[in-house]
Amino acid sequence: MHDTLGAMRAFERGIYSRTLGFTRTNYHLARHHLARGEPRRAADLLRPALQGSLESSNYYVTHTEVHQLLAEAYARLGQPDSALVHRRWIAAALAQADSGARARLAAAPDAPSR
User: Fold this and answer.
1) For residue 53, is pLDDT > 70?
2) For the stretch 49-85, what's the b/e string if a residue is b when 16 or more beta carbons lie within 10 angstroms of its beta carbon?
3) Is the dihedral of CA 27, 31, 36, 37 positive or negative?
4) Helix/strand/coil (H, E, C) string of the chain?
């Protein structure tokens, strides 16, 4: 019914490059790692999405989504300064977002305080 490990293996097979591939795959795999208490693995999957150019990565995922999950990973790793950098990025993005995006992100588990 819910084969989390099977899904994680499928996501891992779907990653052919952490900076040139479909970053949505990295994002979902990172979410599974966070759920399993593996924030270091999550951060290692997400950082490359912000290091590549927009033309080579980030398909089907936004920078805001990646920053939000990275903030959560760093918070769980006990790295509040790194988490704060990503939360500030999110806050700046939300200041310019439409109301639908603001509402969706504000409801997220690790939403920045305004």
Assistant:
1) no
2) bbebeeeebbeebeebbbbbbbbbbbbbeeeeebbee
3) positive
4) CCCHHHHHHHHHHHCCCCCCCCHHHHHHHHHHHHHCCCHHHHHHHHHHHHHCCCCCCCCCCCHHHHHHHHHHHHHHCCCHHHHHHHHHHHHHHHHCCCHHHHHHHHCCCCCCCC
The pLDDT score that the predictor gives to residue 114 is 45
The pLDDT tens digits for 1-43 are 577 777 777 766 666 555 555 677 888 889 999 999 999 999 9
- Residue 78 sits at the vertex; the CA angle it makes with 88 and 57, to the nearest 5 degrees, is 55
